[in-house]
Write a structure and sequence with these properties.
alpha/beta, three-stranded antiparallel sheet, nine-stranded mixed sheet
């Protein structure tokens, strides 16, 4: 890709921009933020690391939405983060207006771009962006399952002592308390994780995964997570930029898959140069399907608030 614009020069946006630049996943990273001078400062700070990390990706910043012009991909991290004790849904009303404004600017300055949503509640706001822009559903999707799966993999690595690089996990559903970690699809270098971990311990890992963001927020106290979310964004951009067609869990707009339509849900997707190339449908067990439907119901309840 030639240009990626990150809307929101906060901690997640800054971390993502740094990783994208270091990996030279595009020729130019543009940071857009409503705070005057902040995006310019962040961009300059990142670009001054270029001699250390040997990259040529240009990093620029502005408070003018026209900086979106020519973007191949728009990454949305802007919005109000949740505070201790808040759920992701608690910030919906405030962030809804933020997303609407970003979508309107995208339509004006980058009508051919792909849009990746990170702002919470990401499931609901991905659906809102899809409706607001009117773009093909392949071009509007969200980041959730990549992050949740990485958290689950890290917890398994901590429990087993095995390399995190060998652990594969997958998490479906909403990005929150109703997410659906699929333990039977978890492997350690191809070996089912149940060979190493008992069901009781695995259930503890699942619960910790569901509360992964809240745990970090409680420990940091003054900030939600940003390193892992930024890395998750970069992994998705890498698959798009290099057309790797990786199967990654994304918040996708469903149109009949999993017998659901008119909703954005976390499901396995083939991610390539056009965005969500396809949705991978898994055969879910009755217990897994029950959790998935519960997650659907929670997201639909928030979507109803949009009307």
């Amino acid at each position: 890709m030639q240009k990626v614009t990150i809307v929101g020069a906060g901690r997640v946006g800054e971390t993502a921009a740094q990783i994208l630049a270091e990996g030279e996943l595009c020729r130019e990273v543009a940071l857009l933020d409503v705070r005057e001078d902040v995006p310019e400062g962040v961009a300059l700070d990142i670009f001054q690391t270029a001699p250390f990390f040997d990259f040529d990706t240009r990093v620029i910043g502005s408070s003018d939405p026209a900086i979106m012009s020519g973007s191949d991909l728009i990454i949305v991290t802007a919005g109000v983060p949740r505070k201790l004790g808040m759920s992701r849904s608690d910030v919906l009303d405030v962030n809804l207006g933020v997303i609407d404004g970003i979508c309107d600017n995208a339509l004006k300055y980058a009508p051919d771009a792909i849009m990746l949503l990170v702002t919470n509640p990401v499931d609901v706001l991905t659906y809102r962006a899809f409706k607001r822009t009117g773009w093909d559903r392949r071009r509007v999707f969200g980041q959730a399952g990549v992050l949740d799966s990485s958290r689950m993999a890290s917890f398994i690595a901590l429990e087993t002592g095995f390399s995190a690089r060998d652990i594969t996990t997958i998490v479906l559903g909403g990005h929150g308390d109703t997410m659906v970690p699929l333990s039977r699809y978890c492997t350690v270098n191809g070996i089912p994780v149940e060979h190493f971990i008992g069901s009781d311990v695995m259930q503890q890992i699942i619960e910790r995964t569901r509360a992964g963001g809240a745990e970090i927020l409680a420990l940091r106290k003054n900030s939600s997570a940003y390193d892992a979310p930024g890395a998750a964004v970069a992994a998705m951009v890498d698959s798009i930029s290099n057309n790797r067609r990786r199967i990654l869990p994304c918040v996708a707009i469903l149109d009949g898959e999993y017998d659901e339509s008119g909703i954005a849900m976390g499901v396995p997707c083939v991610l390539g140069e056009n965005g969500v190339e396809s949705v991978v449908q898994l055969d879910l067990l009755e217990s897994e399907l029950k959790m998935f439907r519960e997650s659907v119901a929670t997201i639909r309840k928030d979507i109803e608030r949009l009307d």
